[in-house]
Design a protein that fits this description.
By secondary structure, this protein is α+β, with helices and mostly antiparallel strands. It has ten helices and twelve strands. The strands form three sheets. A six-stranded antiparallel sheet has the order 9-10-3-4-11-12, covered by helices on one side. It has a four-stranded antiparallel sheet with strand order 5-6-7-8, covered by helices on one side. Helix 5 packs antiparallel against helix 6 and helix 7 crosses helix 9.
């Protein structure tokens, strides 16, 4: 804010910040997941830019941002309009000032993409599209930022949230927002794939205010995916799908290697699969991580019917709980 002096004393003229940002909206046709990743020199960008609904679409609304494009756009997509039709309708019905400074990108559940960068969005501004993604930004160092975002998204293997993170990191490395950095967000949706019951949000992690937002976003994404795969593991065990459960437990452990409960869960699933040496190795790691391991071990085995068998295996228990020389 700047002070200007006028007759009768100072008047405060506030220059409000624009939501200047780089983002990517994308769909993974193999899983149906859709999502948005965004980073900005702006407070709490995740509460303004990313919008997504499972089976419907994903939207990033930014620059001279009309936040209403998010919920209204999803409603129109849900009514069966394509990404392009929704974009045209939003712009046509936008009665707020500053429309020619807005930026928006949409992907619908059929994989159609549409984007708009207004001529008065702050420079450098632009958008580019690939087969399954649109990258866009404003107040950037130049076009290399969104080009890097697209290249990294296409070059990265793995699930959508990982590819979205890689895209943001590449945008940042290419210079990103020319005013610096403050916040970042990743939102990924799919039908009933989230933790607990009837939750369509697979990932929604937000860094609202941080000098190194992408470092913190990576930490939160690791936790989000670890807890997701842990939750999925228990659901699969409950459904009697032990092989799939073991694969999910392995992913949970990869994202959260320093936790006794993720190690121990994989131990139980290795044991249930008949692989006692692998089970012992995981339980030993859990033992090293948690002085109360025996309590965790017995509590889990008693609580989960599929794991109870280990409590009858004297030889195995002796091996695990004998004093290590």
């Amino acid at each position: 804010s700047s002070m200007t002096w006028a007759a009768g004393g100072p008047t405060l003229s506030l220059k409000l910040p624009t939501v200047s940002t780089f983002s990517i909206v994308a769909i993974d046709p193999s899983t149906g997941q859709m999502g948005v990743a965004v980073a900005s020199r702006y407070f709490s960008v995740g509460s303004v830019v990313p919008w997504a609904e499972a089976g419907v679409g994903a939207i990033a609304t930014q620059a001279n941002v009309n936040v209403g494009y998010g919920p209204k756009g999803l409603k129109l997509l849900d009514q069966g309009m394509t990404a392009r039709q929704v974009l045209d309708r939003l712009l046509a019905e936008d009665k707020f000032p500053g429309k020619d400074g807005r930026q928006i990108a949409i992907v619908d559940a059929h994989g159609n993409l549409a984007a708009y960068t207004g001529p008065h969005a702050p420079d450098w501004h632009g958008d580019i599209q690939g087969k399954t993604w649109s990258a866009q930004g404003n107040i950037l160092v130049g076009p290399q930022v969104i080009e890097a975002i697209g290249k990294a998204f296409e070059a990265t293997q793995g699930e959508l949230s990982e590819r979205l993170f890689a895209a943001l990191a590449a945008g940042e490395s290419a210079g990103g927002d020319r005013r610096g950095r403050q916040s970042a967000s990743i939102l990924v949706v799919c039908k009933e794939c989230g933790r607990n019951t009837n939750n369509d949000r697979w990932v929604f992690v937000n860094v609202d205010d941080n000098p190194r937002p992408l470092v913190e976003l990576r930490r939160l994404l690791d936790l989000a995916l670890a807890y997701n795969y842990q939750d999925r593991t228990f659901k699969l065990v409950g459904a009697g799908k032990l092989a799939e459960a073991r694969a999910a437990a392995e992913k949970a452990e990869r994202y959260m290697p320093d936790r006794a409960d993720t190690r121990s869960l994989l131990g139980f699933l290795n044991y249930a699969a008949g692989n006692k040496p692998a089970a012992l190795a995981e339980f030993r790691k859990a033992q090293d991580l948690d002085p109360e391991f025996r309590q965790l071990f017995e509590g889990t085995a008693e609580f989960v019917p599929a794991f109870k068998g280990v409590l009858e295996d004297r030889a195995f228990l002796d091996q695990l709980f004998s004093k290590k020389e």
